[in-house]
């Protein structure tokens, strides 16, 4: 299960749409490691001067790795995080997360990060089973 959904939120979802604020709060509470990583990379991006910021430290546990994978593999969760933080997230391997300005999806830096070449260059033997 990707998210621990409180009964009240599930009831509201069954009756109709749920707003981003409630959805993102559920993500934050359900996937604390993923939230921490995304929050940190966004803070680094906002505080830096580069075209993007990234987080490439492997998760400390398989549970944490699973949280990051669930957060970034789900269109709904990733989209909610992107809207909440006002960034475009990119993901490589099982733990490299980057934050870009939404307008950067047409930039060379973004295209390089999400390209097959970028993925191949970010490989190493220790990442094969991540």
TrEMBL record:
Domain of life: Bacteria
Protein name stated in the entry: SCO5389 family protein
Organism the protein comes from: Amycolatopsis pigmentata
């Amino acid at each position: 299960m990707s998210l621990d959904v409180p009964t009240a939120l599930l009831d509201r979802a069954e009756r109709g749409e749920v707003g981003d604020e409630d959805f993102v709060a559920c993500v934050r509470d359900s996937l604390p490691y993923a939230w921490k990583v995304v929050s940190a990379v966004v803070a680094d991006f906002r505080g830096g001067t580069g075209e993007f910021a990234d987080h490439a430290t492997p998760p400390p546990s398989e549970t944490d790795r699973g949280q990051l994978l669930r957060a970034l593999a789900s269109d709904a969760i990733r989209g909610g995080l992107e809207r909440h933080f006002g960034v475009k997230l990119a993901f490589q391997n099982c733990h490299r997360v980057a934050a870009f300005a939404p307008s950067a999806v047409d930039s060379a830096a973004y295209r390089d990060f999400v390209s097959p070449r970028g993925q191949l260059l970010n490989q190493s033997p220790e990442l094969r089973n991540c």
